[in-house]
Amino acid sequence: MNAADPQELKEARALWLQDRCDEALAKFDAVLMRHPDHPLALIDAARAFGGRYQIAKAETLVDRYLATAGRTAAALALAGQTYRMIHRGRKALDSLKEAAGLSAPDAATGLELAMLLDRAGEMEAAEAVLSGVLARDPGFAEGRFFRAHVAIRRGDAEQALPELEAIAGETRHHPYLRTRACYALAEAVDRAGDAAGAIDQALRAKEFGAPDADPLRRIDSLIRKQGDQLARAFTPAKLAQWQREAGGHPPLVLLTGSPRSGTTLIEKVLDAHPGLRSSDEHDLFARFIAPPVLQPPGKAGTGDAGKRLLAADARRAAKMRATYFAGMEELLGEPLAGRVMLDKNPSLTELIPAWLRMAPHSKILVMLRDPRDVVLSCFLNYFPLNAFSVSFLTLEHTARRYVREMDCWLRLRDKLPPDQWRETRYEDCVDDLRGTAGGVIGWMGLEWSDDVMDYRETLARRLTGSPTYADVRAPVHRRAVGKWRRYEEWLAPVQPILAPLVRRFGYEE
C-alpha cells in the first residue's frame, strides 16, 4: 500500500517525523486537496492534526476515512486506533467494539480494545476480549503481560507472577516489555509486603534503561538550566506587569507538583464539579507553546530562557493564550463557557514562569505528599524513559530530582501573591476528601457541589488518560500513606537529601 502513496504524502510524513509540524500540516492539507479520498492520507493527516490539537478537524478526517473505506473490521480498527491518538477515547472504544463484532480482532487490535475497556471500567469485557486474543495466539507476549498486570490489580499474584517472570526472563522480547514485566513484578511483591523483592525487581527493570541514560541526562541538564534561568528572571514586578497587560482571561488553574504526589486523585475529584473541566498530562503547553518563546528556532537548549521570557511582549503572550485555550477546547470537545479550566501537569513545575507569562492570572495548585513516599513511588513505578524520568533510574537521582523541583517551586512561591497559589496535601485528601476538596473549590471561586463526592460516577463516563487510572477508580484508602517506613533501609542513603524538605513541608514526626 505504501508504494502507491503519493510523493507529497511521503514528504508530509517526513516533515512530521522531523518535528517540522507546521510545514507538515500544510503539506498534508495540500495532499488532501489533490487526493481527498486517499485512505492513508486521511488517517495520517488526522493523526498529525490531532497531535497539534486541531482535534475537530482530525475527527472529521477519520469520519471521512470511514465513509470512504467502509465500516469493515479492518477500517474500524484503524479508525479506532486513530481516534485514541487524537484524544477521542470513547469514539476509539466504540469503533474497536464494532470492529470486534464483525470479525475476531488480531492480537494488536484486541489488546488495544481490552486496554480501552479496562480504562472504561469494563473489566469483565476486557478480560473476555483478552482471553479470546490469547486463545488464538497463546504466545502473544504483550497480551500475556497485560493479563498478568490486570491479575495483580485483582490480587491474583499466584497467576501473575510466573507469567511476568517468564516475560522478564525471555531475551527474545523487546526490552520495553521486559521492563514493564519487572515493574509489574515489583508492584506484585510490594503488595505482598516484600520490600526487598520490590527493590530488586525495580533495579532489574532499570538495567534495561541504563544504555540510553546518558543522552537523556544531557537533555535533562539543559532543562534544569532552563528552569534556573526562568526562576531567576521571574519577579513579582514582572508578574504585576503581565497581569496589567493581559487585563483578564478565562479562569485557569495549573495543578502541578511532582509525579506520584496525588495529582490524579484531586484532579478527578475536582473534575466532577459542574463549574470546572480538567485535562491530564497533555503536551500542548510544554511542546508547542513554551518552546518557541524560550528557545531560539532550531537551537533548543541554547541562549538564556529567562531573558527570552522577559523579551516576550504582550502581543506574544496573547497569542500564547489564544493557542492554549483553543487547544484545550479542542481537547475537551466543548467550549469552556465560563467554567474553570484545571490543567493537571506535574511536569510543568519548572515552567511556571512561562505559564504565568501566557496566563498571568492563573492560580497555581501544588500537590504535596511526604517526600519519602513520593521518591519511593517514583522509583518503584514504571515511567516511559525520557529526559524527565531518566532521574528515576537510581534512588539518589530520584531524590535529587524531587528536591530540584520542589526547591524551584519554593523559590517561585515566595514571589507569588498569597491568593494566587495553594498547596494541598495528599494525606489530607485521604483523611478528609470532602473538606480538602471543599477548600480547594472555594479557593478557585466556586460554590460547593455534591457532585464532587460522586466523582467515581464521573470517572465511569470518561476515559482516564493518567497511568494511575485504576488506582483513582478505587475507593480512597490509606495504604500508600507512610509506605516509605517499610523501605527505610533502602531510603537511608537519601534521607539527608530529603530531610530539608521533609522539615519544610511539615512531615517530621
Q: Numbering strands along the chain, what is their spatial order in the largest sheet?
A: 2-3-1-4-5
The end-to-end span amounts to: 65 Å
Please identify the structural class as seen in this structure: mainly alpha
Give the name of the CATH superfamily of the largest domain.
Answer: P-loop containing nucleotide triphosphate hydrolases
Number of strands: 5
Q: Biggest β-sheet: count, sense, barrel?
A: 5 strands, parallel
Mean pLDDT: 92
Whole-number tally of structural domains? 2
Question: Can you walk through the features of this model?
Answer:
- With 509 residues, this protein is mainly α.
- The chain folds into two domains: 1-103, Serine Threonine Protein Phosphatase 5, Tetratricopeptide repeat (Alpha Horseshoe), CATH 1.25.40; 212-504, 3-Layer(aba) Sandwich (Rossmann fold).
- It is 63% helix and 5% strand.
- It is built from 27 helices and five strands.
- The protein has a five-stranded parallel β-sheet with strand order 2-3-1-4-5, sandwiched between helices.
- Helix 6 crosses helix 7 (107-119) and helix 10 runs antiparallel to helix 11 (175-191).
- The longest helix has 21 residues, at 213-233.
- The N and C termini lie far apart (65 Å).
- The model has no long low-confidence stretch (mean pLDDT 92).
